[in-house]
Amino acid sequence: MKYLRLLMLRHGQTVESLNYTFNGWTDVELAPEGRAQLDEAAAALRGLRLDAVYSSDLKRAVYGGEALARDRGLKLTVEPRFREVNFGLCEGLRFPEIKTRWPELAEDILRPEGGNFLFPEGEGAAVFRKRINDALTELVNRHPGGAVALVSHAGVGRAVLADVLRLSNALMWSLTQDFACLNVVDFQEDGGVRVKLINGFLGPKGYHQEGPGFDRLVRDARI
Predict the structure, then answer these.
(1) What is the mean pLDDT of residues 22-29?
(2) 182-188 and 193-200 as β-strands: parallel, antiparallel, unpaired?
(3) Among the four residues 85, 107, 109, 219, which has the most C-beta atoms within 10 Å?
(4) What is the CATH number of the domain that holds 204?
(5) Residue 105: φ, ψ to 5°
(6) Domain total in the chain
(7) The predicted structure's pLDDT at residue 116
(8) What confidence tier does 88 reach under pLDDT thresholds 50, 70, 90?
(9) Is the separation of the CB atoms in 116 and 108 below 8 Å?
(10) DSSP string for residues in 105-141
């Protein structure tokens, strides 16, 4: 059966990541570690045939998209709809600042059954998911077979996985998406979907933290 294999790569570490600020549409720079992460990811995927490469229009994603496209002599397709969540007035703020200014929003972000929050002058979960789903549907229809890479953001990876797995908004935000992680989803011509990989690790040297794996899980759990 013919299918499209979508390889979704998150951007690398940014200069603002260690400040734990909310940066969605803010066009922050990659940190040197982030560029190394994406260079290593591109090197790890170099032997894989790709028919097209997409990225969001934010430079932290464009860097990785250009690396994948350049290796194959392809032209990168930049699609603004694959941007991260628009955090609106929360852009550039840390969580304690958001909690002070919008306590109800902060409570909803932390609530296990939450996930339906609306960022002031930004996006809510439903609008964000529809934006990503619409862009993804067009991409899948444009490529009924083969392999396509998409370099984007943690929220985008979560939204795509939540839609194909039919997860609630609350469960969507619970999906871990590490820097430069790889997700792989197959879209079959009969409408079926197969999730092949979530939050995969392409390492080893550029990551500011070790990638997902049993050893890391054991250490995290302090077994």
Answers:
(1) 96
(2) antiparallel
(3) 85
(4) 3.40.50.1240
(5) -65, -45
(6) 1
(7) 79
(8) very high
(9) yes
(10) HHHHHH-TT----B-TTS-BHHHHHHHHHHHHHHHHH
